[in-house]
Amino acid sequence: MPIVRCSEAETHEIHGARFVSYAVPRTGSRELCAWRGEIPAGTKAPAHTVDREEILHLLTGELLITLDGRTERVTAGDTVIVNPGATLAVENPTDRTATSWVTTSVGLTAELADGTVLTPPWAN
What is the pLDDT of residues 38-63, one digit of tens each? Predict the structure, then answer.
């Protein structure tokens, strides 16, 4: 039975945010990936287009989520569904860290506006 202990999760940092991966192929997941995102106060991550569906559930704090040009404020308890091909930007305009739980399919990639394609290790 695959169990990922908190102490075994891998931490990655990019664009000012921290991603702590739990469910990935390396830990025994075959189809889904799941991670905790920590978005510090004042962080504004660049817009990126995802190639897989991504579900973001906000655990603590609040964020400004821009999805395909439309911006919404989300607060703890809200869930954002990002469909494949959608362009997503995340901003934390507050003075405290926001924490999210994200689930997607194994193999997710994200393309930045400059054409750079990221293959995040927390999703593969």
Answer: 999 999 999 999 999 999 999 999 99
Query: What is the CA 111 to chain-centroid distance, rounded?
Result: 14
Q: Which two tokens stand for residue 124?
A: 């593969």
Q: What is the rounded (10 degree) CA torsion for 8, 11, 81, 109? A: -110
123 class by beta-carbon count within 10 Å (0-12 exposed, 13-18 middle, 19+ buried): buried
- Pairwise CA distance, residues 77 & 98, whole Å: 12
The answer to whether 12 touches 120, Cβ cutoff 8 Å, is: yes
> What is the torsion angle, in degrees rounded to the nearest 10, for the CA atoms of residue 26, residue 103, residue 44 and residue 111?
70
pTM (2 decimals)?
0.93
